[in-house]
Amino acid sequence: MNRISHWIDGKVEVGASGRSGPVFDPATGEQQASVDFASAAEVDRAVAVAKAAFPAWRSTSLSRRAEVLFRVRELVDANRKEIATLLSKEHGKVLGDALGEVARGLENIEFACGIPNLMKGSYSEQASTGIDVYSIKQPLGVVAGITPFNFPAMVPMWMFANALACGNTMVLKPSEKDPSASMFVAELLKQAGLPDGVYNVVNGDKVAVDRLLEHPDVQAISFVGSTPIARHIYETGTRNGKRVQALGGAKNHMLVLADADLDMAADAAVSAAYGSAGERCMAVSVVLASEAIADDLVAKIKDRIPAIKVGPAAEDGNEMGPLITGEHRDKVEGYIAGAADEGAQVLVDGREGAPARGFFVKPTLLDGVKPGMRCYDDEIFGPVLSITRVRGYDDGVALINANQYGNGTAIFTRDGGAARQFEFDVQVGMVGVNVPVPVPVSYYSFGGWKSSLFGDQHIYGPEGVNFYTRSKVVTRRWPDPRTSKVDLGFPQNR
Ligand code: NAD
User: Fold this and answer.
1) Is residue 251 predicted with pLDDT exceeding 80?
2) Same structural domain, 87 and 227
3) 375 included as an active-site residue
4) How far, in Å, are 266, 339, 340, 401, 428 from residue 397 at the CA level?
5) Distance, CA 362 to ligand 1 centroid (Å)?
6) 72 FRET partner, CA 20 to 30 A, in 49, 113, 181, 336?
7) pLDDT in tens, 135-149
8) What predicted TM-score, i.e. pTM, was given to this entire model?
């Protein structure tokens, strides 16, 4: 059976901890590989290698670093299909979806190619007589990334593109459920000319993560995953003096006003709820349907569901693959059963007719869902769309703002005034107007509010550059007899 190990100092390093975990093929339910789980000592070695590589990498000029990133861009572009195929094999998402993931990840590498411009500081000539003041951005040192199973290629790219471009060295701990894409991309970074040791991958579980959180030589942690773990990462990392950005879970609401284009809204709800089997932190999981149009909208959504082709990524034409593990499938099915028990109507039951092999649940539609029901309150992270009926705008916004999560949201309307008011009122980090999955382009930054993000800086884009650098301000003058004298007073500007 295929064994996946670590990538340290520019090569594969076979794990020595004696611990490992299974990597399943979610489309068949069978184990297809095992992944080594790093011990604390193996994490220490990766961090030591990254630390040793830091002085030379941070001294490498901006134009040489940009050159490496341009080559990374070319190699990822040339290997889109290979990366996407690895994603489909281990995650289960269909190839078109996997190619979309690679494309959105690549945009972050393209953004980081502009690092000479992004690292610019500011300069004030003659701040005082004969004295100039300027700020510079410098890298932090060794930074760590900890990533979730649902975007095994894109989320690491959110992190490493800016982290490395800014001159840091890095240790990535990918999800143990689908680690191969990270190993493959590490090889591409080497081919692109990234010096050995600058980028390292340790595979593993809580043991590796906890060591990264306490390691004195790790300066910053970027985390993307579920809210309970994000909170743990933030609290432990900051207690240990590290800079931390920890992105958590979500429960994204799509508010449909009575004047919306209902066909457009139905298409959007179906695409955003069931794409990637709902395993997206920006998936729409609740449609807030205004009473006046709720019956029509629900009928349009329900009509679209039978046409969705569910099956293995390896078979052409399928649009939705399986869930990541059998355990997760059972959890999602538990929410569907629970919804019926709590009084919601199961309009389409995805437990029925799902392929017998693999971890499949088909698209599910619940109506009459209300706060207080588990299917409303919890992040399900599966192909389950809930309809909650609201009187109109005020009711809808009140529900969104009362939710513990604040990752993404969308409003569907033709009323520009209502849309503008929504942007103003809503307590959510990423907002769509007639756009159901408003993932920001790479030159903005990605991040939610409330329990969807712990930390001060959003990920990637300009805030990503801020996160991976710290600023220094220099006050400078050159020898000039006209400005030099003994003066014991507090320095004042002249
Ligand atoms: P997860 O929290 O279970 O795992 C994320 C990472 O943390 C993995 O690398 C895992 O090995 C590690 N981990 C798991 N348990 C740990 C523990 N007890 N201690 C230390 N480390 C631990 O998340 P997941 O199931 O891989 O991913 C799905 C979740 O990620 C969903 O909640 C989803 O909303 C969220 N997500 C959020 C965003 C975002 O940008 N906000 C993006 C993608 C996914």
Assistant:
1) yes
2) yes
3) no
4) 20, 23, 26, 6, 11
5) 23
6) 49
7) 999 999 999 999 999
8) 0.97
